[in-house]
Every structure is written in C-alpha cells, then in structure tokens.
Amino acid sequence: EKVKRKKRRVELGVVHGKRETVEIGGRLGKVTALVTAGSRQRDEEFADVMTLHRGFPGGRLWRTQTRSLVDHQRLVPSDVVNARVYGYASAAAMSPCGNFAVIGYESGAVFAFNVQSGRSRGELTPRLPGAPSAITIDAIARVVAVVTPASPTIQTYDLRSMLPIATRRLPAPVLLLRSSPTSSLLAAATVDSTILVLDLANGDAASPVARTLKGHPHHRVTAVEFNASGRFVISAGTDLTMRVWDVVSGSLAAEIRTESSVVAMLVPTM
Predict the structure, then answer these.
(1) Are 115 and 121 in contact (CB under 8 A)?
(2) What is the pLDDT of residue 78?
(3) Within 10 A of 183 (CB to CB), how many other CB atoms are there?
(4) What's the confidence (pLDDT) of residue 18?
(5) Three-class SS of residue 19?
(6) Helix H or strand E encompassing 221
(7) Cα separation of 193 and 159, whole Å?
(8) Which residue, among 138, 158, 134, has the nearest Cα to 146 in the 3D structure?
(9) Cα(49)–Cα(179) distance, integer angstroms
(10) How far apart are alpha carbons 178 and 181 in whole angstroms?
C-alpha cells in the first residue's frame, strides 16, 4: 500500500541575494530545530546548517552555498538502533568554525560529532538527568554548555576530553543559550525574564554572573544573540521589544518596538 507523505521544506533564508527553500520529501519528519555555524563556510563542500527532525535520532546537514542536503551524512551515534538507545534528538548546536556539532537526546545523552566526516566523537559524560533543551558551543570550540527544562543549572563540558568542567547553579531555569562569537562569554535567558552573562573560561561552579540584564519584566524572553564583535547582546521578548545591551557596562544601549513577538533572530558574524 502506498502512503502519501507530506513534503517538508527547509527555509535557508536569503542566499546569494534571494530567498531559498529546499524540498526534502517525506522521508524526514517535521523540522524541530535548525542551527547554523557561526561563520559562513566559503568552501561549498562544507555543511553549515543542521536540522533536527521529529522521529529521527540525529541531525541532517545542509550546505547554504549549494542550497542542498548532504544526503550521505547523518549525524547519528554509531550504536543507535531505531532510536531505542538514546531516544530522538531534542537540541543541537554547531561550533562557530563549522567543524563540530553537538546533539542532545531525550534520554539525556549528549554526543559530539565531526561535521566533515559525519563520525561521532563519543558521548559527553556524565549523562544529564533529562532531555537537553538548549546547547551552545563557545567561540573556540572548546566548551559545550547544556541545559535541561525546569533546571536552574548549566552543565559545561570540555569538547576535547568529553568530560565535565562545572555545573553552575543559576537563580532560575534557563530557556535559551547563546555563546559570544569572539570570547568565552555566554548569554542565558531565564524564565524570570532575565538575561545572565557568564564567563565559560572560568571553570569555578561558584563563579559569579558577570552581568544581569533585566529588560523584559513580566514577559518571556523569546530570543537572544550576541552581535559580531561580542560587545552587545540583543534580546527580544513577548513585550514586543528588542533590546540591545552593552555587555561591558551592563546598560541598555537601544530599544526597538516590534509589531509582534520576535521568536528567533540571526546576527551575521562576518
């Protein structure tokens, strides 16, 4: 019996001056997450976009230069059997250099991959108590930060040794994570409408938060990014504002009103 499957589309944004969309057919489920390398790859052989799909135990790679799916490369742990071992992928990140990817699973497992070869570098240990909800990799692809829903902690790992660095406890559970493209700073948006700026280079779990940015009171922070220089953090919330923060001083540099809530943003790093 033939079953008609709905085609899925991946929006690659404005590429070479025009908006591009790629049809990927019914073999992949609904796109649940899309992450990019921080800098645009100049070699068309390199993948710089990764998508997660409902019902798929890993990530699929794309090249924006050729606007195509890297069909032969699937970032899946080598011992996955019908997703029974680790569950489906729940969160992911790509390193700014585009060489590495990290994927978290429903079981709490977190795996690192080499993007060019598609091979797994192994599991980051110890395993988390729940499915990761946000992952980020620092500017030099050395530190991985991971959070799970409803937990007020950030777990950091060394991407080289695959071992833990520290478990940092924060005032509230984290919704979003973003790394600076130029330094070891990390921005974490929490459920209490605050953006916390931490230094990943400091492995001390008790190290203080570098900056506390309170800009969307009583509203949910829906997006957060660093600018290309790493000097500013841009946040958006359900209060219909986008705010630009000076990381050095911790002060509000600009505020932009929006017609509707911004749910995602991408700031060019080049």
Answers:
(1) no
(2) 76
(3) 18
(4) 43
(5) strand
(6) strand 221-226
(7) 30
(8) 134
(9) 17
(10) 9
Mean pLDDT of successive 10-residue segments in the chain (270 residues)?
40 41 56 80 74 89 85 76 74 92 94 91 93 94 93 93 93 94 93 92 74 90 93 94 95 94 78
Q: Tell me the C-alpha distance between 154 and 171, whole Å.
A: 11
HEC string for 22-54: EEEECCCCCEEEEEECCCCCCCCCCCCEEEEEC
- Six token digits for residue 266: 């991408």
What CA–CA distances, in Å, run from 232 to 106, 204, 211, 269? 33, 24, 12, 12
The CB-side HSE value for 13 (13 A sphere, CA atoms) comes to 14
Separation between Cα atoms, residue 64 and residue 227, nearest integer Å: 21
**Rg (alpha carbons) of the chain, rounded to whole number:** 18
Residue 243 CB neighbours (<10 A): 22
pLDDT at 80: 58
Instruction: Please report, for residues 38, 54, 88, 132, 204, the alpha-carbon distance to residue 175 in angstroms, rounded to integers and kept in the order given.
Output: 20, 20, 20, 11, 22
End-to-end CA distance of the chain: 50
**268: burial class by Cβ within 10 Å (0-12, 13-18, 19+)?**
exposed
- 209, 173 Cβ separation under 8 angstroms: no
Q: DSSP E strands: which ranges in 29-131?
A: 31-36, 49-53, 59-63, 68-75, 89-94, 100-105, 110-114, 120-124
**Residue 182 DSSP one-character state:** S
